[in-house]
Amino acid sequence: MKEEIGKRIRQIREDMGMTKEKFAKLLGISGQYLGVVEHGKSYLSIEKLKVLCDLTNLSADYILFGKDNYLISNTQKTLSEFSIEQIETGCNVLQHLAVFLKCK
After folding, report:
1. Residues near 52 by Cβ (< 8 Å), separated by ≥ 6?
2. Would the pTM of this model clear 0.90, i.e. be above it?
3. CA–CA dist 95, 57 (Å, integer)
4. Cβ contacts of residue 23 below 8 Å, gap of 6+?
5. How far is C-alpha 35 from the chain's CA centre?
6. 103 pLDDT exceeds 90?
7. Is residue 16 over pLDDT 70?
8. Distances (CA, A) of 3 to 54, 68, 98
9. Neighbours of 2 (CB within 10 A)
């Protein structure tokens, strides 16, 4: 379980484009300790987990158990970069693809 949590924390940090040192500073821990956590050798304290949740707007459920609310927030972030017309076109393409795959 520690390794999976560490992998998720590392992925979150990398998705934010942050170095270990910068991310650790925001969490109030050392870069060295963050490395230990990311490698699944230790956990964040409850207080630091709350800081991480507040910082990333992710749930503790995702960080601890992998419940994929992260996918939703990541999708919302990605879609916010597109116009309504681009999103509608993408949805139409997906509908056609779904019909095509259903017929196979």
Report:
1. 9, 12, 27, 44, 58, 63
2. no
3. 31
4. 13, 16, 34
5. 18
6. no
7. yes
8. 22, 17, 36
9. 13
Residue reference for tokens 């409850």: 46
- Per-residue pLDDT at 9: 96
Among 39, 51, 54, which Cα is nearest to 8's?
Answer: 39
Smallest CA-to-CA distance from 65 within 49, 78, 76 is with 49
Got the DSSP string for 29-81?
A: S-HHHHHHHHTTSS---HHHHHHHHHHHT--HHHHHH--THHHHHHHHHHHTT
**Residue pLDDT, tens place only, 29-83:** 999 999 999 999 999 999 999 999 999 888 898 899 987 666 677 788 888 899 9
User: Is 83 strand, coil or helix?
Assistant: coil
